[in-house]
Amino acid sequence: MENSDIISLCSMAVAVAALGTAIWQGYVSRKHSKLSVVPRLVLDFYSYPGLPVKIELHNKGIGPAVVDDFQFELDNRKFKIEDVQSVEGIIERLGLDPQKLSWLGHIPCKGATLLPGDTHRLIEFTDSYKDLEFHNKLVQLLPRIGFAIKYRNVYGDMFDIDVDH
Fold this sequence. Notes:
Largest sheet: 5 strands, antiparallel
Number of helices: 3
Strand content: 25-35%
Shape: rod-shaped
């Protein structure tokens, strides 16, 4: 074997090592990029005396969350929420009259995006802090309520949250 053959083999070995390093770096870089945009949805139930009873959805992750499915759970039964009438129907199932109480809410629809730090007030009984008896009734109803949410990150990786209070 001549010196030129040895030099050629060494050059090829260095090229193969460089290619392997480049592929490995690409893999590590993509993995890091995916981790740097992971959303984390969190539900908070607020029932402090003197404040309205409310349920909020927060994105406490570092990437946007795209909602694929959102369901309300009541007594371990799931309900799709598609409009105001759906919410009013659930309020009625709780034994409340939606026409006689003050409430507001925002239900994320399919494809809705929650950016990092975003908060969506799913439901708030705005006047519940004014009447302690009504406030306490709502607090007693909270354990019956839950949510099931399927969402994804910008890479399409799926996540879900299934929370019973």
